[in-house]
Amino acid sequence: MSVVLGVSGGIAAYKACEVLRRLTESGHDVTVVPTAAALEFVGAPTWAALSGKPVASDVWSDVAAVPHVRIGQGADLVLVAPATADLLAKAAHGLADDLLTNTLLTARCPVVMAPAMHTEMWEHPATQANVALLRERGVIVLEPAVGRLTGADSGKGRLPEPAEIFAAALDVLERSAVAPLERDLAGRHVVVSAGGGREYLDPVRYLGNRSSGLQGWALARAAALRGAEVTLVAANTTLPDPSGVDVVHVGSTIELGEAVRAAAASADAVVMAAAPADFRPLERSDSKIKKPDDGSAPSIALTQNPDILAGLTRDRVRDGQVLVGFAAETGDGQRSVLELGRAKLARKGCELLVVNDVSDGRVFGEPDNEAVVLGSDGSAVEVPRGSKSALAHVIWDCVRDRW
């Protein structure tokens, strides 16, 4: 894919080097278009070396090739990182005084902007109005992160981490190849759970599972890109918090259930992508369980954890709320994965159930996934192997169609 990486003049411009590296290493053809101010932070030789292409910031270089028109016309994606308050204002009002702003006017592909500025600048009514106008026109403006800013200041306005910007860019590219990425979830509050519950036997050991949280992260990111207010309940993951998402970190399955139920009270949809632990120790040892000298193994009594999804369907608090479960199945010799999935859908009482075949360790920790999305109305949507982001968008399409 052909990607234009626009870089405007903020201290966070150095982070765009990592975004560029990830884009080129994943096989994309990247043209870097920095503003003159951006070149005060990172010089043209750096951009040229990382992209393998010459770099210009004004419309007077290589005039015969008409770069102020051709660069935008030939792009599959324009990504601006960082996008300063000045750049957002120019883009919102159609100003074109350099190569980047000209490119933004000529692009007919998806445009993603990752803002970075001080909190006061981000919260200023002018900036908020510019962001609203850009989003109304179809530009995808990511929410800035919260954290350390220039100097000693902290707050909202920090550039999202390069890995998160890169993931969002790939998401937009992939989704746009199938259907336009619209803010069709705007005005909705959705809850996503991710990761796996851990039930501690003692201060050292626990019962757990292999869930990495990658599918839940993809669901949260996709929903945020499509305009939803997202609450992500994350259990024992090592992934950085996605930007624009309210993240609640939990440990045990009991904590997971409490956090999901609290967030579900105001949610239009809940997607249970986490893998709760089915059992927990009846008693937890306050000290490390010692290995017996006689070679025997300790006996550990277990009790069942509450069924979070079944509880949500039983105690549904909002009319029209769509509940989505996941079923990681392997088949049992008597019934197939889909037969087990259909039985689970009927037992749980949710509207949708995403059925994964996890035989031989598939799906867990992998970037790809394949599934069948079963509906309580008898529908079945087969999703062939592809990225977890692609599956996430199919799931949100199914949720949207049931609202």
UniProtKB/TrEMBL annotation:
- The segments labelled Phosphopantothenoylcysteine decarboxylase in the record are 1-189
* Keywords per UniProt: Decarboxylase, Flavoprotein, FMN, Ligase, Lyase, Magnesium, Metal-binding, Multifunctional enzyme
Q: Does the keyword DNA repair apply?
A: no
Q: Which InterPro entries match?
A: CoaB-like_sf, CoaBC, DNA/pantothenate-metab_flavo_C, Flavin_trans-like, Flavoprotein
Q: Which Gene3D superfamilies match?
A: CoaB-like (3.40.50.10300), Flavin prenyltransferase-like (3.40.50.1950)
Every copy of the Flavoprotein domain together lies at 1-172
Where does the record place the DNA/pantothenate metabolism flavoprotein C-terminal domain? Answer: 185-400
What this chain does, per the record?
Answer: Catalyzes two steps in the biosynthesis of coenzyme A. In the first step cysteine is conjugated to 4'-phosphopantothenate to form 4-phosphopantothenoylcysteine, in the latter compound is decarboxylated to form 4'-phosphopantotheine. Catalyzes two sequential steps in the biosynthesis of coenzyme A. In the first step cysteine is conjugated to 4'-phosphopantothenate to form 4-phosphopantothenoylcysteine. In the second step the latter compound is decarboxylated to form 4'-phosphopantotheine.
Report residues binding CTP.
D278, K288, P306, D307, I308, L309, F326, K344, K348
Pfam annotation, one family: Flavoprotein
Q: What is this protein called?
A: Coenzyme A biosynthesis bifunctional protein CoaBC
Gene Ontology MF terms: phosphopantothenate--cysteine ligase activity; phosphopantothenoylcysteine decarboxylase activity
- Whether Ribosomal protein counts among this entry's keywords is no
